[in-house]
Amino acid sequence: MELRPKRSLGQNFLVDKSVVEDLVKSSQVKKTDTVLEVGAGTGAVTKNLARLAGKVIAVEFDSDLIPTLKTHLRGIKNVEVVNADVLDLDPEYFRSSSKIVGAIPYQITSPLIHKILHSQFRPKSITFIVQKEVAEKIAATPPDATYLSNFVANFGEARIIKVIKPGAFSPQPKVDSAIIHIELYPKPKVEDTLKLEKFLHHGFAQPRKMLHHRFEAGILAGSKIPPQARPAHLSKEDWRNLYRELVRVKERSKTRRGDGTWRN
């Protein structure tokens, strides 16, 4: 049976062997690693990961691909195929995985990264092929920093490894892609990750406006942030200082006047 990529699932099969090799090399997989692969497809990346890793957990959502995937992996003993939606995956798979790799459907990039980083069981690294524009948002620095770059920077260091042209896929997507690698810290800089996410969303809600439209003057002064600064101009350290100052002031003022330190 001929396999036809499903547009509804955002399927663009990676067919360029050199890009497969670049993705696997960028993940820095070793025999001591258990790798969770997202979007295993027909097994092009899975085979290469299996040669290097102790074990590969190959997750594929499309049940129509599973027979072909298993056929292509026949005889390879260190791969477990899981037919599941990675966004609903049993947390035990994350617990056992030291690295997460994949050429993922572009529409799940942000929710998947948030799921992984909010998880109690974070890997040592994440290496994905994503849309180039999204990779640039993840790896952005001032004066072009984004919500996503600051959120990810709380957990690790992100860098773009390589830009990939549409011809590496079948069918060809309409946009360029990129390999992005995120090396995670042993623990996040701010440990209450859900509060940090809400805080950053608040700060970047009006990215073109000066920060005094989003935060009280006292909060900015206490963080040594100029009120005329715009969100994209702040460093990751600036955002952490602003977050900690806001938490400090909110805790101090909670019994006195509630939490009226956020300007909506």
UniProtKB/TrEMBL annotation:
Swiss-Prot/TrEMBL keywords: Cytoplasm, Methyltransferase, RNA-binding, rRNA processing, S-adenosyl-L-methionine, Transferase
Source superkingdom: Bacteria
Binding residue positions for S-adenosyl-L-methionine: 12, 14, 39, 60, 85, 103
Keyword GTP-binding set for record: no
Domain Ribosomal RNA adenine methylase transferase N-terminal intervals: 19-186
NCBIfam families the UniProt entry points to: ksgA
Protein name per its UniProtKB record: Ribosomal RNA small subunit methyltransferase A
